[in-house]
Fold these 2 entries.
Entry 1:
Amino acid sequence: MTTSAVHTPRGPVTRKDVARYAGVSTAVVSYVVNGGPKKVAPATEAKVQEAIRILGYRPNAAARALKMGSNQTLGLVIPDSSNPFWALLGHAVEVAAAERGYALLLTNSDNNLDSERRHIRNLADRQVDGVVLASVMFEPDLLELFGTEIRSVLLNHASVAPGFNSVGVDLEAGARLAVEHLIGHGHTTIGLAMGITADNEADGREEGWQRALEAAGLPVGPLARGGFDRPGGYAAGQRLLAADNRPTAIFASSDMQAIGLLRAIREAGLSVPDDIAVASFDGSIEAEYSWPALTTVEQPVWEMAEAAVSALVGENRNEPPQHRVFPTQLRIRQSCGCP
Amino acid sequence: MTTSAVHTPRGPVTRKDVARYAGVSTAVVSYVVNGGPKKVAPATEAKVQEAIRILGYRPNAAARALKMGSNQTLGLVIPDSSNPFWALLGHAVEVAAAERGYALLLTNSDNNLDSERRHIRNLADRQVDGVVLASVMFEPDLLELFGTEIRSVLLNHASVAPGFNSVGVDLEAGARLAVEHLIGHGHTTIGLAMGITADNEADGREEGWQRALEAAGLPVGPLARGGFDRPGGYAAGQRLLAADNRPTAIFASSDMQAIGLLRAIREAGLSVPDDIAVASFDGSIEAEYSWPALTTVEQPVWEMAEAAVSALVGENRNEPPQHRVFPTQLRIRQSCGCP
DNA sequence: GCTTTTTGTTGACTCGAGTAGATCCCAGTG
DNA sequence: CACTGGGATCTACTCGAGTCAACAAAAAGC
């Protein structure tokens, strides 16, 4: 028995072990593993493959990452991965990344700018090949954080930031679609439950709501601000219901807000859509299963995720920053008054 | 674009650059960065810190990972990160990992065993320090996949698997709590909407439902199986409503199922809880905002995530596999008939 | 004043894999 | 028979950071 030659290594199996077992040099092992830059004789290749199989060799990703300067990993920063909309976006990004052989590091900023900064730092330290930043906040100094080394793309940001790639939807057009639909149902007092964005710039959804009303010659209804989440919508709903000019229809800036809104309306003893019609923005699955099912402006989340990932890892990596704006689609259900 | 100090190297800044700039050896830089194994004179330390600051040095994580054999990363495998329950669990795991300085690689298995295997392989190749496997499926050959090198823990698994760490809840006791509560409301025909688990073993929730009924001397009501998700609950609901012995109360094995169930009940023109009372399992946020709000068996998700992560990275890393079972708590809302 | 001890610093090796450049071997040619 | 071409393979250096043995300088001890 050739015990010395067929010595089973103790720790994890390295390229060296495979080389020894197959009786070749470490270079050949690399060539086989990567279809490497040089050809290997079929017979040798077979020997190496066999050795790999028997020893259970798996190339060390850290070593490869060190040598190659890339670890085939992207980072994703979202405010709250347990919020269904972000969860969906995260899922889509993960799938888009996986399709290209990239893994996804997930981090939650919890809507906290400091935490967001920390996470971006951390991702940069980990040499990710790019960062998808999906955050409602935005501060220009983020640009410095990224430096020039690390690719990034803003996903689902309200505003277009110079110097950054971005992928988003036409918020204004989407909101207008929804509000016009509510107007079509004969409503004349249409309120807005608007989420809070970091920069106090008017969000496209707010503009769309306003313009649709103006275009129809209607007065601009009451507006309440709150978080984009369920509690935010609940609070905004309570304020809208207490307004002097109580609206007969409300447009909410996110599905989650609309769900909180529905609760506020129910607690006030009113019914949707008979007393108050509701439409919202996002097109998440919750909208379909709420009661009543929400009429909502659907974002093409999967396409957006695709676009974001390809901006980071695609051919066009070194082109100037791109801004892609996707169209939305009105998904009509019952909360607006349609049967 | 900012032009910085004179000594700015072209590529990414390495330890060597810092050493040169500060006029010390690379070893000292390491010592400073890590509070390293050797002491450094305060004056020298200051010089190095200054150099680090000025050059904007960030240690290369891949190199560190290579040397240390750990990249401070955990992997998470869940069926569908856009399902709110998994999303919540994922969030909790991410936070627990971050607290310990670990990043989280997120992967979706899409309830597909092959995909799950591929992802585990991939995570193993990436030398993660541990894998949290939260999947409804389970196949014993997973054990081999992990080999002995890589730590793992099963999170939220129905059954305890020998050789694996696991963290779960007492499904049977939780289900019993819920069903007993429905019995307390005077119901005598209580159905079950049960999710589908890979191994055909009876799930604890099914047993709990059955035992609670038997203990109360009640007949075992109708049972329908479907996915753990909303469509699954919807389909199961339709079948339960069409049953000969139509139940007046239904226990659902997940919140998502219950939400699908609510829809089926509404479409049948019935009301919850007046015509049919509902209770479910999980305790996710959707349960709170559904209509009516769901009475549900709450899982201590955050504690479970903590436990799972600490099983992977804690002191007790090298102890034999542990099985931790957490208690659940009945969260009473309106869907059961309580005011 | 001349050892010891302590403190601070450094050069050099290591982790595991990618790959350029050198080397080997053999078939084919003059 | 020597000579070249070319395919297959190997040697050796590289990536960036951790850390130990070795060493220099300063402090303490007798």
Entry 2:
Amino acid sequence: MVSANQIKAKQVDAEIIKQRTRLWLKMLKTTRGIENELRRKLQQKFDTTLPRFDVMAALYRSETGMNMSALSKALMVSNGNVTGIVERLVSEGLLLRLQGKEDRRVMLIRLTIKGQELFEKMAIEHRVWVDQLFSQFDFDDTKELMDSFEKIQESELSSNEK
Amino acid sequence: MVSANQIKAKQVDAEIIKQRTRLWLKMLKTTRGIENELRRKLQQKFDTTLPRFDVMAALYRSETGMNMSALSKALMVSNGNVTGIVERLVSEGLLLRLQGKEDRRVMLIRLTIKGQELFEKMAIEHRVWVDQLFSQFDFDDTKELMDSFEKIQESELSSNEK
DNA sequence: AATATATATTTTAAGTTTGAAGTATGTTGC
DNA sequence: GCAACATACTTCAAACTTAAAATATATATT
């Protein structure tokens, strides 16, 4: 026998599932919008691409350099992907690739001086662009949103185990 | 002359800018994580790709079909991109492409019966996956997050004008 | 030491993505 | 009508991206 309450509960379940799906779509669309915007401006002002910028940004944040695995993990992209982008940046004289000493499998990637200088120029503008996109959020808002994303990432972790 | 208050204000400014940049990085990383997760599962369970699924999802939501421009706007990807994905889906018998009658430039894209049936099967699982990823958020949380993304999109709009 | 296993990275093929140029069709102003 | 412009879409080249296979090196087991 199915009670009225059980029927009601199912409707509420269906509603929240729909809502969460809508939220994901919105999140995806918003993120793509920001990426498109940043990509367009990076192209226009610095004649470079978003993936190149992202790699340089990750390297700039780390003082000592990063190996390929760390880079691909930080950017959430595949291993082979990083190989190509790093290659292009090396050939442009923006990155340095050094073979590990104790472990000769690992590659240590670092910005060259030229790379550092270019990145610093780009970062100044980039910060302004991002700051404007998120200008509606004050310090507390950003902390709350940060927490929300943190929660999602925790869910990702547990679903990765499967 | 620079007062102590002005110095303080600058420090607060710098802090919030940093915080917003951090927030954007987190948002990007979280979104990529979800995409990777969904991609993996779509591949594993249905031997299909994320862009294919996204196109089918957009078409399923619209009863009457969509033209190429509407599709590319809905998915926030370039026009030429949609052409390729639609082509593959048409060749697999999942989509239909009809030339517009009054305006012969526009292409009306619709799911075939086969496409609808396949999508419905995929959507059932997809909803569960998304529901789990966002399970930490109740109805009110989702509404709040929705509003936050809405705010960002408004900022995107105004920066697009430039 | 030899073998098996694991890890870090690159290579490869297929697919996706962009931005710009090209094609086809519509619309507007003269 | 027709030239100029605008719009919808496709094509193209280059870059990006993934998953899987291949390569090279390290670690563990016997």
